[in-house]
Amino acid sequence: MENQKSSGEEESSMERGLLHTWKGYSCSVTPEKVLLSRPVLQAALGNRHGVLLVEGGQVYSFGELSWKQTQAPSSVVTSEPVLEAGLSGQRVVAVAAGGFHSGALTEDGGVHMWGDNAHGQCGLSGLATVPNPTPVGVVNQLDPASALPSACASPQVVVTVVELACGEQHTMALSARHEVWAWGSGPQLGYPVGTVPAWRPQRVERLAGRHVLQVACGAFHSMALVRCAAPTPEPRRPPPDKCGQCNQLLYTMTDKEDHVIISDSHHCPLGVEVGVGLGEVAGEVRRSSEGSPGGKGGSPGQQKVKSSPSEPLLSTHSHPRPLSSFSTAPGSSPAPAASLSQDQAAPSSLDSAEEACKELEEPEASEHTDTEPTSVDQDPSTIQEDGSRTQGGAVLGTGAKNSPYPDEQAVKDYLKRLSDHTLSEQTAKSPQLAQHSQTDAIADVFTPDPDDETTTSIMTAMPAGGPVGSALNSLVASCASVVGERVASTCEALSLRKVMNYYYPVSSSSSSSSPASGPRALPEGGREGPVGLARLEESLQGKKSSSLGDIREEEAEGLSRRLSLPGLLSQGRYAVQLLSTAYGGMLSPRLLRRCSRSRVKAAPLTPPVVTEGNSLLPSLQTEVWSWGRGQEGQLGYGDFQTRSQPLCIKSLSSKEVVRIAAGAHHSLALTAQSQVFSWGSNSSGQLGHMESPSTIPRLAKLSEGIRVWDVAAGQQHTLLLADGDCFQPILYYSGQQVREGPGQTSKEGSGGYTQQPVLLPFCMNLGYVSSVFAGGQMCAAVADKNVMGFIASLHELAAAERRCYCKLTSVKIQVLQPLLKAENLCSSLGPTSTGLLQTLIGRFHRVCQLTGQNSASLTSLLRRSRDIKGLVILENAQVFMDAYTEYATAVGNFLVIGGFQALAKPCQDLFGKGCEVVQRLVESADESAPLPDLLLSLLHLPIKHLQEYGRLLLKLATCYEVPSEFSGESSTHIPCKSMHGESSADYQKLQEGCSKFESLVLHLKRKRKEADYTLHFWKSFPGKMTDSLRKASRRLVCESSNKALTLQNAGRFSVNWFILFNDALVHAQFSTHHVFPLTTLWVEPISEENTGLFGLKVITPEETFTLLASSSMEKAKWLRSIHQAVEQALSSVGSEVASLAAGGGPRADPPISRTASYKFYKDGRLKDATYKGRWVAGKPHGRGMVKWPDGRVYTGTFKNGLEDGFGEYIAPTKSPNKSDHYQGNWKEGKMHGFGTYRYATGEVYEGCFQDNMRHGHGMLRSGKLNSSSPSVFIGQWVNDRKCGYGVFDDITRGEKYMGTWQDDQRQGHGVIVTQFGLYYEGAFSNNKMMGTGVLLSEDDTTFEGEFSEDWTLSGKGILTMPNGDYIEGSFSGVWGTGLKISGSYYKPNLYDSDKDKSRTLKLGGLAVSSEEKWLAVFEECWRRLGSDSAGQGETSRAWDNIAIALTTNRQRHRDSPELLSRSHHKTLESLEIIPQHEGPVTMEKYDTIRHYLIKACDTPLHPLGRLLEMLVAVYRMTYVGVGANRRLLPQAVNEIKSYLSRIFQIVRFLFPDLPEEGGLIPETADAQQERDSISSDAQLDAPRRVVSSSALLLPVLLPRLYPPLFTLYALDKEKEEDVYWECVLRLNKQPDLALLAFLGVQQKFWPVSVTVQGEKQQVVISTKDACFATAVETLQQISTTFTPSDKLQVIQLTFEEITQEVLALLKEDFLWSMDDLFPVFLYVVLRARIRNLGSEVNLIEDLMDPCVQHGEHGIMFTTLKASYYQIQHEKIT
Asked: What angle do CA 1157, 1163, 1168 make, to 5 degrees?
């Protein structure tokens, strides 16, 4: 078989992938080397042929190739490998060989098959043989119903295949989606087939939805390795308590003394309910399994009906069914019915009680799909069409009551008969069971045990309408009768347990310690639907198929775990507690009282469940499934039955199987612990043990220390690849000896066989074997030469990991798990140590699992690429480092707390005084070593193993040629690979990984030393203080017991002992001690020059003291130790480890500013408060939070230990769930500056504070709109009281006061307006109208005189009527209720002029002047600019304050960016540039100032913007709502003018060179020359050069105040506007020409044609709204502008539009005269139809810039005003 290489090929090409083949195991066997031009990647061996895959994706065949006879007869038998030319051009990644056919898998997931095809195993129809590799299409036929309508009838999806396996007559493929596909013949396909082979690949539906990892084919059976699904807890809903149709209660309660009976015999009067539940799901499963022997005869698709909501769904059948499945076919091993284990019987998501019952009744359903051909003894009981069961001709359950259920007595009798029948059958079949008493047997029968396979489920034999349906009834009956009726308890125990499982599945801690219990028992989490039902059925079949003979070993353990009868009492209580939650109002109080008394018992601790977190690591939680022919027991179910559908081998579910292999008639499973389980035919000793045959998996017998990591199975032999004493792999062989003489065929030469696996003596000569293969009688191994030690290092790394995992698993199983279950553990250790031990063991499990997963990953790497790219410890180094760090911390914590000393006693109680098991696992040579030290060494094993990672990664790195950038010198090594690109990166990766693990090892060693030092210290420390100071995480750094450190100024006889821990400095005295946390400890060295003392100043939040060292060296030592300890305490563990791994060490000095938490203990403002936040030198400084014990909380900034800056404060009040809430500025620990205070009473104050009091401008909202006294006050406050000018809106009374206050009372001048139109202005005293005042009513009735109280006239006065009549005299009484008058009545003379008649009354004289309003608002703005009073201070300081305010506000808003829009951010950025504010102001500079003011006023973060925002708020507060009174218009206008002048003062303070109001901006020389050159007329028109506050500030102020101001104008001019508008409407009814004629427009100005929508049209008599249309549209825009200047601009544009149109009409230049212009403009005004033109005119007149009143704009405005008055007085005839 040697294929010689050409002389030109390099020797190095054959360093890897050398293939050796041989037969048998005798000493004379010499392997043959198959020499090919390229390394062999994989081999596959059939009965008489083999297939090889070489590097580059080429495939060779050798041996008897009978299917090639048609091509070249000479090539039928070939000893030299022949290239399969049919695969040229394809990159093959895997090959497989069956009995007489082969397969290849390409890179793109395609399948090629060739060889014998008699049974369809090549997947091609119509061909008996396939001579050359031919593609086979593995396609998924989608359901046409689910396909798109436009798709073809049967859409196909090509399946990507990742693994192939071949048997004698079938082939299996594993897809990229982890599904299994099969084709060929026989039950080994996993789906029903008839006599015709299945040529087309079909999916094995039974495994659909599961994550299949590997497939293997025997001659006539198949296997799959499946990853266990993570359990998905689903919410459990209690069963419904009402009928879905008639809404009546399903369960009725009867309370009889100690018994509570829950009856579920509800009958819906509206008819039967048709349920879709698990019964129909079972039908689905039956339909999917048609054709299987067990599935025949069922009637799928039949509807299930139920007559009661609580009744289980009944399947209807037309054939008799056996009642019991206890008896089996003759000749087969006994197969008792399987029980539902506690976990298996717990459905995770059931919508109702009937579904739960149906789920519990699963064994019956499982018999439909069971493929076991069992012939059972016929039982007289049959199932009738209506679903009820008959026995002996009588229908059970037909009694007096109208119910489909039997009564209780009938059920108990039936159960008793059944248990007797079961017992007799079991006694007959199993003599070992006969020795048990009948009572024990009944107890066993009725007790479901999760692990005992002899347990018989009573539910299998129950009638369909039996006690399962009335599970609640049985449950409560058993609960109630636990005191006296033990027999009833026995009968109903099972129902009790099952209903309990329905609510809460029993955890693994309460059942046995078998790994099958717990989350792994239900791999799919009990999902719903056909898949979930199939899972449950498989668990049953797995149990059912175990023979009694195979499980006797488990019998003794199982019997000790039986549920004894007295135990039912506690479970009954448990169930009643469950029921009381669901039906609390219905249970008997006496029963609940009795069940609440529980028995306290020492319970074993729950072992930790470690989930596999990282998806990059291979899974160890796996299951093995098998199916096909089982005549030799090769399926592993404990029998010889054939199964056409996959079932799970339960005994392997917890064994962590990582690889499977199938021989002709035997099967192998390799576990992560390097153990081999084998079962099936053992005719030649191929199983590795002497059991013949073995129908369940058993361990192959190998010498201790032999760790197998690859397996292969041939026809009658097994090949094992294992670790021996050294890390070079060794080979073991078990099975038939093959002797092949010169004249013998291999058949004739077959000799003896092995008793157990034997070592192949030549294995050490093969090199480093990476994988083994077997098939027929042949064996093969692929080996590598050890190039530069790289291959050896990889093997050493993998072997070390496997050895470690085996060791850790032994520790876990032999020591830790028994310890956790020890009953005296908690009492021996105490609660603290017990919790630490549980944490320690949990982290041990995590490290153990990571090691196992890494071991499996490394083994897989050796079999595949043998390259470092797949090294998990490099790719996921942080995962490993975190796990080991956490584990080492847990070991240290347990050590420090003295846990190992305390653990010695439970260990001796458990393992005997010698504790040989611990000594053996530690491999301790010192037999006298104390047990605590042994236990510590045992748990230090994982940390010891960590050193191997660094060493072996370094060893791997040395196998590379070192690049010059890493080493600094050229290397003379010969590289094992070219050192370019990838290899250079690999080397760097290895170096980094090595340094990381080495740093971690050093770090953990240091931690171990600290823990030992601390433990030693606690042993010598005084006992009382030990209890209070000893913590698991606390480590000793140093202590001053040698008087190295003393307290300065301490008394002569005082004892001061300083102990530095890793988290605190402890000052211990005689019997007291004080703890200073290191996170809030600052140490400074004191200079030795002046004092000569070696002092250290220690600063803590509440104390500062000086420590004196005995020498300069001691001082330096303590200073360094404290600094390092503080630094370590401040850094978190994770970041510390990361920095150590990166090679960084701690800094010399810890930061003076830091984040820490501290609880104050001394008397003072912060007593017992906890502060968490930033610190500087012992004081809170920066952002932080303080919590007081009484519930007060402050969150914000601090400065030198006091609240300073922006913060939030919450103070609870006496009212429950109500608290005061302040958010705003603080200064020196007090509220100071702007803030918002929300009182618990509902009041809200928003404004300025000073020394925790409301001081300055602010707004207080009291109550809500629907409360008793809602009101709003906005104005000035002094020392928490209203004082100065303010506006008070009393919403309840509908009054608004605007005036001065003193001590929370109205005092001085003020104005009141009411919602009924009353207006008062005058004097107030003591909160009342008192003194001289003026009162106006809505109808203009006026009173001027004396007032004594609110609205009460008292004294002299004048009452004026709306018509001008007035009364002068003395008045008394309340306005509006009737006045007493003593005086004279005056009626004006008819001949007096109107001017004399009306007594002019000027309002506002008794109101607060505009300049005196809102002084606090402007004072606050001046304060923000750094001025004590208006106009005082330095401009530069003001600009500095503006910059600080902007920066501070931006920082605060950066934390919450949603508060500012993007444009707002841009505005802030532009404001950071301070404009030039010194030097003469030019036009250019004036524009810059104007733009700056617009931006500054646009953001409230700028002092000017803040001022504007507050002015807008007060203005709206004053003049909106009740304040919208027409009498207030003059005050509103004057207030705006006052704002302008006062803001202009601030602007001139910021820009000192800006001219005064009305001043001219000086021009530059260039502008002066330009001005001289233009005409004198143009020189006159230069209004822009005049500086005015209105031109500069109205554009930013007026748009915000416009709505309330314009409303006042509209109200004031309401009557005039109505007259104007009536005239406008009438005149606009006229056509254009008629209106022009009416208004007296000269005919030459009448438009002849107009443009309408782009077309010219002649103006005719009927034309309307067409003339001067452009000018009309322009004038209409006056309503869309805000400022007078903008409105004047609109008027100017209107005039220009009129002029343009007339010029186009006359076609010559002309000058307007007012007589010509006015009628035309009047026409435009009428057609513009401006609704509130009078208000517009008055607003412009009041607020226009004085400098434009006499210019062109002034004349145009006068024209508009004249037009308005003309329209009002127009005579319409």
From this structure: 35
